[in-house]
Design a protein that fits this description.
This protein has 551 residues and is of the alpha/beta class. The chain contains 18 helices and 19 strands.
Length: 551
């Protein structure tokens, strides 16, 4: 703690420091009772008004401005200002001034120990300057007062303390009065600072509680998102989380669902998740691929037929709608329905009834319909290929599945899942996927979506021989896209070079850049490993923090 030499500084019995005061300063004499009582009356009025302001629970800056305005209006103070420490605690910044008053330099700040204000924060003790023009340490930065014999004023600054921590200052210009009166002003400001500090502490506690509640809310929402993710679907991307939320919203009801997405995106998995998340989960889940059957066969497949209804109908047949009684009927590729089938299904959707082929008997249907398509139904309606009334009846609650190229963050999760699946099926021990293979999968556009990825992983798993799925194990469609097939195959030296580099990178990844350990993994000497690394132009340092799980 740095103070001026003793000749310029004096400390009174209350622990307050006076700046620019002679060693022979005269302490206050007995005051006239009438002015003394009048001043105390004003102080009581100020404290009462401040208590009322604090009780209104307005914003902190507004509250401080109103408090400072009350001090200036009632007690004749001027240039009242409240400064608070920045978040990092390195400097004091202006928090509030009197209501309607703007500082000339609001961006200015004080470091701890800088000037009178910075010293108050550093020491935690109030300070009094009887005449600011005669105090060399008074910086006069915020208001830049015109100092002179006619404008000279006193200055009082007190710390704002929350708990045991100084968080700011409260200061004011006061008229030139006796030291005793300055002492009284300082004690009043100290009381006001205590009231402000208590309010700040309450606000900080409320803010902390609010932040904790927000964090808890985010945690619970994250857990909820994990809980609503169907176990049969893999993916944590934002697009897939939106799909999970849609499934969670519609599953408990009997609402008709239309699942839209490109071929291979997993529409059947979403249909199954919707069924098994509903009250019909104990009932049957019946799948019908509408594109695999012609119109006559599809009608019989869906509605069933009576014996003798047509040539070859040797016995009565139960249709898929009846098989799904009490459960869910999943109609895949519904965009391929003929207009006549659409009319009959429209009756099922609207009236919950149908007739078997060759029968006049109406059968009630307690079944939920989930449809899926990869076609642009709106264009089909416009072209007259799809009935508008049927479109509106099935388009009650659409769920759109993103293509794999729009959810590339899920590629590695899906690849790991398929590696485990086919490694177990083929009795192979595949521990990880190489960096080159991962890069190739991320660079590919996946027109066949998840189904194509699964086929590629099955292909690569079959060719993998050393516990690692390498880039050269993937199908030719993923090998260096943009080149012709001959350049993909390459000559024997080129393929050997690629294989050596891939194996060396994998070994360095696994050992986090330890060349000797990588050499032992590869069964060669450390000298040979360094020779290979130099010839293959591999930078060892970038593997020091590698992820050994996948890269």
């Amino acid at each position: 703690m740095i103070f001026l030499p003793p000749i310029y500084e004096k400390r009174n019995k209350n622990g307050m420091y006076y700046y620019g005061v002679s060693r022979n300063i005269v302490m206050p004499q007995t005051l006239n009772s009438s002015p003394h009582a009048h001043r105390h009356q004003k102080e009581i009025e100020v404290l009462a008004s401040i208590s009322k302001i604090l009780a209104e629970q307005s914003g902190q800056e507004k509250m401080l401005s109103e408090v400072l305005s009350g001090l200036e209006r009632t007690l004749g103070f001027s240039n009242c200002i409240s400064m608070l420490l920045s978040v990092d605690g390195s400097k004091l910044i202006v928090e509030a001034t009197r209501k309607g008053q703007a500082t000339k330099h609001p961006d200015l700040s004080y470091l701890k120990g800088e000037g009178i204000t910075g010293t108050v924060v550093q020491t935690g003790r109030p300070a009094i300057v009887p005449r600011i023009s005669r105090e060399p340490r008074f910086r006069n930065m915020v208001y830049q007062r015109p100092l002179g014999d006619g404008n000279d004023v006193g200055f009082v600054c007190v710390p704002v303390v929350v708990g045991n921590e100084v968080v700011g200052t409260l200061s004011a210009d006061v008229p030139q009065e006796t030291v005793g009166e300055l002492d009284e002003h300082a004690r009043l400001l100290d009381i006001v600072a205590g009231l402000i500090a208590f309010d700040m502490k309450s606000r900080r506690m409320a803010q902390l509680d609010r932040r904790n509640l927000e964090a808890e809310n985010l945690r619970l929402r994250s857990e909820l998102k994990e809980r609503i993710r169907p176990e049969n679907i893999i993916g944590n991307s934002t697009a897939m989380r939106n799909v999970y939320q849609r499934i969670c919203q519609v599953a408990p009801s009997d609402t008709t669902v239309l699942i839209r997405g490109e071929s291979g995106t997993g529409k059947e998995l979403v249909a199954a998740a919707t069924h098994f998340g509903s009250r019909r989960s104990k009932g049957p889940f019946v799948r019908v691929n509408c594109a695999a059957l012609n119109e006559s066969l599809l009608e019989s497949e869906l509605f069933g037929h009576e014996k003798g209804a047509f040539t070859g109908a040797l016995a009565m047949r139960v249709g898929r709608i009846e098989e799904a009684e009490g459960g869910t009927l999943f109609l895949d590729e519904i965009g391929d329905f003929s207009p006549s089938i659409q009319v009959k299904l429209l009756r099922v959707l609207q009236e919950r009834e149908y007739q078997r082929v060759g029968s006049n008997k109406t059968v009630k249907a307690d079944v939920r319909i989930i449809a899926a398509t990869n076609k642009d139904l709106e264009a089909s309606v416009k072209n007259g290929e799809f009935r508008q009334d049927f479109y509106y009846r099935i388009h009650v609650f659409p769920i759109s599945l993103p293509p794999l190229r729009e959810r590339k963050n899920d590629i590695l999760l899906l690849a790991d899942h398929f590696v485990q699946k086919y490694a177990k099926r083929m009795h192979k021990d595949i521990r990880r996927i190489s960096t080159q293979a991962i890069n190739m999968m991320f660079a590919y556009h996946w027109p066949g979506n998840v189904r194509e990825l699964e086929n590629c992983i099955e292909h690569a798993t079959l060719l993998s021989t050393n516990g690692v799925l390498h880039g050269h194990n993937l199908p030719p469609t993923l090998q260096m896209p943009g080149t012709d097939r001959e350049s993909q195959v390459g000559s024997l030296p080129e393929r050997v070079h690629m294989l050596e580099k891939d194996m060396m990178i994998d070994a360095l990844k696994s050992t986090r850049g330890n060349v000797a350990a990588a050499a032992r993994r590869l069964g060669i000497s450390a000298r040979m490993a360094r020779y290979k690394i130099r010839n293959l132009n591999i930078e060892v340092k970038r593997f020091s923090n590698a992820n050994v799980c996948h890269d």
